[in-house]
Amino acid sequence: MERKINVIEDLDGKKTVFIHDIIFKGRQDIDWKAVEQYLKQYVGKFYRIEDSNEVIYLGADLPDEYAHSEYTRKLKGTSAKAKANAAQGIPELLEIATNSQFEENRKEKHENDAKYGWYSYDSRFALPIFDEDGEIVRFNVFHAALLIRHARDGKKYLYDIMKIKKETSTLFQSKDLTQ
Q1: pLDDT tens profile 96-124
Q2: Closest listed residue to residue 92, CA positions, set 179, 178, 4, 6
């Protein structure tokens, strides 16, 4: 499937990943098994965060954790739809990530997979809003935290995307992207 993604920098220098398709429809009953299947295409790949030059790997645990985490199970409505569709822009979300925050490992169950702790990065993405004719009329912008685990092998792996929050002050009209 061809991805329709681009990254746009606003006047304040903030980058946003624009996702132009909604492949996981509806705000209720997201097919998380389909999201998990979609994410499997990324396993084994890696991406570099522009801001810090860190390399982040996408491990075999990502699809299951992303689609079935405690955080995902609690999501409803717009936030659930946003997380499901954000899966399309994972490479770009990693590339534009900023504001690294370190946290020690707090759970014994992560002693192997996050031996050296956790990192959280901020990222932004936008999803389209369509009119009755299927034309994009605007984009809603979301902030998200990318949760990275620092594993026993010394590599950093994307573990999940959390803290998805719609930005009410940021709104892009479709004409803003075509000028």
Answers
A1: 999 999 998 776 666 667 889 999 999 99
A2: 6
Q: Secondary structure of the chain: what % helix, strand, coil (to 5)?
A: 25, 40, 35
pLDDT less than 50: residues of the chain: 179
Note the pLDDT of residue 65.
95
Q: Alpha-carbon dihedral of residues 173, 175, 176, 177, nearest 10 degrees?
A: 110
81 contacts: CB under 8 Å, gap ≥ 6: 22, 24, 25, 26, 27, 30, 127
| Cα 16 from Cα 126, distance rounded (Å) | 7
Query: Dmax over Cα atoms in the chain, in whole Å?
Result: 52
What would the two tokens of residue 109 be?
Answer: 């169950």
Taking phi over 0 as left and psi of -120 to 50 as alpha, with beta for the rest, 33 belongs to: alpha
Asked if 85 and 127 touch (Cβ cutoff 8 Å), the reply is yes
> DSSP character for 54?
-
User: If you write DSSP's letter for every residue of 140-159 in order, what string do you get?
Assistant: EEEEEEEEEEE-TTS-EEEE
Can you read off the two tokens belonging to residue 45? 């790949």
Parallel, antiparallel, or unpaired: how do β-strands 118-130 and 98-103 relate? antiparallel
Q: Helices (DSSP H) in the chain: which residue ranges?
A: 32-39, 62-68, 70-74, 77-86, 90-95
